[in-house]
Structures are given as structure tokens and as C-alpha cells.
């Protein structure tokens, strides 16, 4: 055997250029380079003459591994075949490896030269240019390499495939650097968090834990951090797939990788522990333990809590079970990927680009909805769709809506199979029915069924299968929800009648109508429509013996709901037996409907919201059988004048009587009159909600409700609060929002409530707040016209603070907030205080603060802000600074600056790489902005009433929305390339703007509104704007022509364009439905010609419109209570015009990245 040459390259790629150069070859080549592997990709320019050139020959000989990529055209290329012969020769003489990739052919085709490979060889023979020996050498090489073990791409995703190839090559080449997908979307924020906790060159050994559901990117994040840190350590080891590997094998691998040699075979775990301690004690190592599912693995590999390794060592653990990370110095939870990053990741796998073309935009959005921000699903489904036409995309996505992708499902199913039976039952319940529901309600049913819900829910949370988000709402990732539902279908062999849970209405009706299998049904959800009515009128008895959850939604939500159905006596005409029923939810319950009493015996939850039941409803008597009733929800029962008899419901914990506008009397079992509200017999109540009721005071008897945790009495006529509130020892939440008559001081006894977490007193006349308990986490005090500055210095656990303070008279000093810098856990802050002159010097130390809204008239100087802000909205009318610099707010995603009358310049926008929306409003002195080219993520830019601003500079490649309002001196728009992805453009009152460039490339443009541009003479050709629906042109007296074929325009409004005299193609308005024209003399003249007869058909008399305007904020909005009730309300409570609902929805999608735990929006919340 010849001595091999010293390798210059490590891997040689052989491929047919037209087949794979811009596809798998490019992906693989970049993946190899990223992993630190020296790869050679041949260049067609080196192929001259009839023989392999010296440079190409040297590259093959010097490489350690050759990878021929067999595509359909490989055998038809003489160059590929010559390279293959040389590879075989190097293998036989120099011991080099050949690792083939079978791209779109079978190994047998290569090995036996059949099908397309047989045709390729025959084509060379037919040319009669090559000797028989050459042909035989080619065939022999194909046979030998075709027999080697290699990779078959087939239907696999190229990203996943590349990762596997690179990993194998790293092992073969003994590389430490781990491969990361070339389609990877940046994870800078998470990487920065971990790197910050690890610290630079510290001697402290640290354990970092990363947890989250399967497929969310834990391993990828660990790999990135591992690669970044490798150079700083004596030894390294990445233990992957720990879940499925024996501990002894892992111990052996750990020692072997760190010491860079094979250690003695370890006999058992105890011996392995001893070996690790003794051999690695002095080594500074970095170790990743990936996909841990049991504590014994950690105990045997790194000894959490003990010192097994040298100083400065770092251990990174990834797991689905948060409970396993108790000994970690820092824990990071990975949640779903935000909209923008999801789109990029999906597009890279499905389309090999960062964003989809217009024809695939809607389908890509649908795919993202299916994937639910799960990176694993985005990668797999994206790769599945790669190279497919639009029709194939449609059929594939339609299938995926009901049937989860097998690879995604198998990955997620690991967590489900590890659950105990009771945990599985609760998880399946949530997937089928209870996403968005209040967990405190559902827990009663599971407890009644002996499912041990407290423990089971904790396990589900630890395993990252569910979350309990703001408002105690249950949340499950869309992919996990689909997995749960698919498990139900599989268990029933895809026969609805055998399913234990039925959530589809049509299937539910089928199940009810078929006698066979009814005993399988445990939970069902359906609509009260004519189909259900027909079933209810069947004569024969029906038994659903195991049904524990029944949800019925009436299709008619009108107040007269149910009256169009004939009266049905359930007990007599169709006596359905529901002996196991625990939860009945029937909104808009028809008053004519009657129940069999025995069906209520085990009932624990009854929800009859918005129903027409009255005091005389006979169901009240049946309800007395429900001795274990825990929850009764009568929200919106407007015909109810008095409550039922509660004397038999000693276990009742939650009574909800919201919007019972006619309710005037509560049964004597708890009191006599709702205006007096005696609570003496209601000691078990946990949650009480009275809102929009004629209540003027709370009686002292409320203090007897020792178990009360939540008290909501908003929108009432309360005048004051009783001191007896201090007796509610377990109270956690108190909400008296919009009680506009409530005045004076809050009782000091509230300060003794050691469990109080949330206090909401917005829009009241409260003037003073006493010292509050240290347990407080959320305090909402905006729009209180009498509020004086409280001392909140003791609220060290406060996360959310909304504070609105009154104007002070000259006799009172300015407001003091010296305590605010000490609230180190604060994450949300809305501060509206017009007397505030300065903020404390330690304000910037609020390092957890991510959301700041600061509204003040008299603040003179903007202090240094907390550096981790993601959202900043500032109004400072009398700010004396001429320039502000925000360059240090590198994590900022949204920025709004308003009303700073003396501000000339905003500096430091260039470093804000994460900025997505920028709003500048009423800055009358603003002269210039920096170049915005570096803001690669900026998709929304709105500049309003900045009359001195001359130009907006930069190439804004992600811009989708641009609003320029009242910028009278503006002469220059952003670079025309900024309009490529533009969807909505509003330009009003920019008097010096003479042209709008860039719209000719705006394929996504949907709305174009131009108003009061006296110098504008022409618009660009709009032919390429194939999504353009709405055009408004006002007060553009010099505009002569509207250019382009406007096939998609639906609405066209033109007012005050006196020079406008033609459309370049009047016949192109195929979808126009609404045309209004006013004060356009020349256009009026030509409208009479035959060329415009089709336009005349859709023209209607001028009615006038209010000019469309982007989302605008008034001072009243700034002071409004957008923090009321939930964090989500804070995030999304802006005033939205109907033309910009879409923009706000896009904003919400992006804000999920900032607040991943606030997933259940107010509008999407469910429950009681």
C-alpha cells in the first residue's frame, strides 16, 4: 500500500453540476464548511481537454474522504465518471474512504448500471469516442461504489439529511466541532442569556439547564453554545440521545472523549462514577448531556451538586422535564418560535430562501399555523414540501391539518408514552377540549374522577407537555394538541363511534345516532342545531353511561335562542341517562329543555351562561341532587331575578353572576338582598365574581368567606371598601376596576393579606394606597384621578406595575418614585405621571424590565434605561434634551417616541438589530434620523407630524408597512428597494415630496393611500402589485395619470386630483366594486367615453370618506388601563382602526417572541 499524501482537503465532493450544484451539493458544502471541515467542491472551469487536470487530481488524492453524489445525470457526465475512477484508485491504493450519496437514484441503478445509469453508459458507447477499457473502468467503478454503504436521500428533508452526513463525517474525521444546520435561524437572545450566566473565563463550575417540549430546539441551542465554548476547555464531550443509551456506555464515551483515547471497558455504573471522578477531576471540561429523562443519568455522569471536574468546567443539560434541573445554576425554557423566525426557518427548508414568493405566501402562512412555531415541525414539513408544486403543497397541507407528520409525531410521542395512565387521561382531555380553559375549573372534574389532578398537572408541566399561562389558562402547543387527538383516533382504529372523546360536531351526531359504542364516550362537544334536535326527539331511550363531560353550544346566540325549536321533554320523550356526568356546559341553554334529575347526581361543574332560564325553571329542583357541585356559572342570565336555593350546595366554591342585570335578590341560603350581600353561609366559596351590578357596598359579613381566593366586583357602584376584606386570609386576587364611585383610602387591613398577588383598582377615585403585602406581583392603578404617589418600596416581588398619578397642586411637591429602582423583579411598567421631573438614578438597574411605557409632561431628561427592554413607548412633552441616544437598547423590538417638542435628533438607532416597529409621532423639531439600513428586522415604520424632517434614509429590506403623515418638509423616501415587501403605504401631507419610487417592485402591496401631496405628478407603474385591493388618492392636484394594469383593485377613491386625466389601462379593473370620484374635472370628462364604460358601471355617487389613518394614539389612550385583568390585555389593548386590524395581528404574532408565556389571548380564552 502506498503511503498516503498529506491531506490538504478533508472531503472531496463529486457531483453533476446541473443536477445538484445549487441544491444538495451547495447545502452540504456549506454545512461542511460551517462544521470546520475542509471540503473541496470542483469547478467546471477546471474541466478542460479529455483528462482530469492536475489541480482536480490533486484535490481527489489529498482528501481523506470522497463523496460522489449520484444524481440522475451523473453517469451521463464523462467528468463525473473519470473522477469516480480516480476515487476508487485512491481507495484501493491509499486507503481513502468513499461515502456515496444516492440523491435521486437507487443504489441498484448505480451498482448494476440499469435504468437511467444504463442509458448514461450506453450514450458514451454510442459516441464511439472512448476505448473499451475506459468504458469498462467506468462500469467497474460504478459497481464498486454502488456496493458501498452510503446515504439515500429519497424523501428526507435536506436539512436533517445534511446534519446526519456532517455528524458522520465529524466522527470519521475525529472533529470536535458539532454540525449546525445551514438553515438555522438565529437564536442570539437565548445564546446570549446562557453565555451571560456562564461568564467569561470564570473558575466556577456551572450547570446550565435547558428545558422545553420535544422538537423546540433544545439540542440545537446546546450545540451552538458548545461550539462557541470549545476552544476554552481542556476536554469536551457531547452526549446525545441520552434517553436511549445505557448509562455505562455514556460514562465510557464521556471519559473517552475528554481524554481523547479509549478508556478501559467500564463494568457497571458505580465503577464508571469512580473512573469519572478520578480521571477528570483536574480537567476543565465542557459537557453537554442531551435529552435527559431520569435523575439517575445525571447522578452517574456529572454528579449534580458535587465537584467531579476541574475549575471552570461547564455542564449543559437539555431535558423535557424541568424537575430534573433543580441543581442547575441557571434554567432556560425554550418555547415556540415567533412568527418572523418561523417564516424564515420554514422558507429555508421549503424554498431555499428566507421568505416565500407571493404565490406561496398564503400557503406558507397556513404551514406555519400547522407547525405552531415548533422548529422540528417547521424543518420536517418544510423539507417535505421542498421542490413540490403549488397543488402538491395544497394537498399536503390539507392532509397535515388532520394527520400529524409521522416524524414530528414520533418525536413528540416519546413524552406521552412516559406518562402514567391518569396523566395521559388529563393530557388527552386538554388536547381535545380544554386548551384556553381555566385550569381551576377543570381540576374539579378530574378530581371527581380520581385522576389526582394536582400531581398529574405538575408532571405534565415538568415534561413541557402543557403550560398554565396568564389567567390560569391551559395551553398546549398545536403540534401536541394534534398528537393527542391523533392518539384518540388511533385507539379507536379511526372509527368515531369507538372514540373516548369526540370534539367534531358531525362525528358527535353520528356517535349519538348509532347505538353501538356509546359506552366508549367519556367526553363530547357538539352544537344545538336541527341535527341535534332531531336526535333528541327520538323515542327510544339513550344511555351514555360513561360520559363525564358534555358541552353544547347553541348555534343561535340571539336572546330568543331556543324559541324556534319545539318544546322537548328530555326526561319523558328521550330519557338520556348520564349517570357519570361531572361537567355540563350549555351556553344559551333553551328554557324549554328538561333534564332527567339523576343525571345531576355526580355533577361538579354547571355552566349555563347567557341562557334564558328564569327563577321558575324546574331544573333548579333537579340541581339539588348535585351535592358535590363546586362551580355554578350563570353569567349573562338576564332573565334571572333571584338565585336558586344554595342550601344543599355546601361544597360550592365558585359562583359567577356577571352581567345578570336583572338580579336583585339572592336566596336566603346566602342572604336576602343583592344590595346587601350577606355571605354568612358561603364559607366554602373560592371565587366570587359580581360585575356590572347595582352593588354600593360590600358587607362586613364577607369576612366570613375564609376560603375566598378571587373577588371580582368591577363596573359596580361601590362607594367604599369594608375593613372586613382584611379577614379574607386566602385572598389572592381582588379586582374593583371601573368602580368610578369608589373613593377615599383602601382599608389598611388589606396589607395583612399575605397571599394577595393581584390588585386592580383602575378607573376609580381612590386617593391613597396603604402599605401592601410583599406577596404582590401585579398592581394596576391607572386612570385614578385622585391617586397620590404611594410608597411601594416593600413590593420586591412585583412583576407588573401600572401606575397613573394625579396632577399635584402648587402646594404639593412633585411626585417621588425613589423606590422604583429597588423593584428588581419588575417586567412590565406603565407609568403615567405628568408632574414627574426626574427618575431615580438607579432606574437603569431594573434588568428584568422588558416593557416600559413612560408618559409625562415635565420630565426634563431621559435617564439611562434598563438595557434589556424589548418595548419602549415614551411621551415627554417638555423634554429639554435636543438629542437622545438609544444605542445601548440592543434588545429593543418596538420603539415609540411621541410629543417631545424640542427633540431635534434621535441617535443610536443603527445598533438596534432586533427593532421591528418604529413609531415617531408629533416631534415638531425633529430634523434628521440616522440611516436605517442596519435595521434588518424593521417591518413597520410610522412617522407622524414631524414637519421639519427632510429625509428617511436606508434600505429597509423587511419593511411591510410605511406611514408618513404630516411630514411637510420630507423630500426623500427610503431607498426604492425598501418597497419590495411593502403591504400598506400611507403618505399624507408631505408637501415637498415630488415622487414615490419603488412601488413598481411591490408585489405584496395591498393598500395605497396618498393625500395632500401638491408636488406629486406621477405614480410608478403598479402592474406588479398583484395583491393591491384599495387605492385612495386625495388632493394631488398635479397628478396626471394612474399607471399600470390594476387587475386586483376592489376599491378606488379619488378626490381633488384636478389634473388627473387618464388611467393607462381602464379595461384592467376586472375586480373593481367601488369607484368614487370628486373634484377631478379632467377625469370626469373622459369618464363619458366608451373606453371607460365598464368603470361607470361600478361608480357610485360621492359620499365621502374619513381619510384612512394608521393606528393612532391619543393622550387618553396613553393613560388608559391597558393592564386591566391580564398581561395579554396590556400587550394588545391598543385602539385599532378597522383598516389596520391586520397590522395589529401581525404585531401580536411578533410579540409572542417577547412574552411566550402569554399565549392565550383574551379573545381566545375559554372556560367559564
TrEMBL record:
SUPFAM superfamilies assigned: L domain-like, P-loop containing nucleoside triphosphate hydrolases, RNI-like, Toll/Interleukin receptor TIR domain, Winged helix' DNA-binding domain
Ranges of residues in domain TIR: 7-169
Cross-referenced SMART domains: TIR (SM00255)
GO molecular function, one term: ADP binding
A Gene Ontology biological process term: defense response
InterPro entries: Apaf_helical, Disease_R_plants, LRR_dom_sf, NB-ARC, P-loop_NTPase, TIR_dom, Toll_tir_struct_dom_sf, WH_DNA-bd_sf
Sections of the chain in a coiled coil: none
Source superkingdom: Eukaryota
Gene3D superfamilies: Helical domain of apoptotic protease-activating factors, P-loop containing nucleotide triphosphate hydrolases, Ribonuclease Inhibitor, Toll/interleukin-1 receptor homology (TIR) domain
Keywords carried by this UniProt record: Leucine-rich repeat, NAD, Plant defense, Repeat
Protein's recorded name: TIR domain-containing protein
